[in-house]
Amino acid sequence: MALDNHCMEPYRVFVQWQRGKPHEYAQTVTAADDEMALMLAKRNIDLRSDPLDIWVTPESEITEMSKDETALTPSTDRTYREVSGYSAQPTDGST
């Protein structure tokens, strides 16, 4: 039974190689459903090494931040470093 190419969709594969480390993008597979995507990912990844965990997700379910967004731009406001906003406490223990 041949699969209809209209039912196939790309899935992104993420792999965790070591405990405590983040999952990393590994590859994209084209599959008809989640189970097929996981099976293809396991086949392709297992040939190279022994991962701890494999995640697959439809590419259509991933939302990426645009390169123009400033959400990850570091703030230049460093007023929290200034001592002027803090009240002074006596060092001798009296209040």
- The 3D shape can be described as elongated
* CATH class value of the domain at 1-63: Alpha Beta
How would you characterize the largest beta sheet?
A: 3 strands, antiparallel
Please give the radius of gyration in angstroms: 24 Å
Percent helix? 10-25%
Topology order in helix (H) and strand (E) letters:
EEHE
Low-confidence stretches are: none
Structural class, from secondary structure content? Answer: alpha+beta
What is the arithmetic mean of pLDDT? 82
**Which strand-content bin applies to the residues?**
15-25%
CATH A-level architecture of the domain at 1-63: Roll
The CATH topology of the domain at 1-63 comes to Ubiquitin-like (UB roll)
The CATH fourth-level homologous superfamily of the domain at 1-63: Phenylacetic acid degradation B
Region (Disordered): 65-95
Pfam family, one: PaaB
Organism: Natrarchaeobius chitinivorans
Protein name: Phenylacetic acid degradation protein PaaB
Structure description:
By secondary structure, the chain is an alpha+beta fold. It has a domain at 1-63: Ubiquitin-like (UB roll) (Roll). It is 14% helix and 23% strand. The chain has a three-stranded antiparallel beta sheet, covered by helices on one side. The longest helix has 13 residues, at 34-46. The protein is elongated, with a radius of gyration of 24 Å. The mean pLDDT is 82.
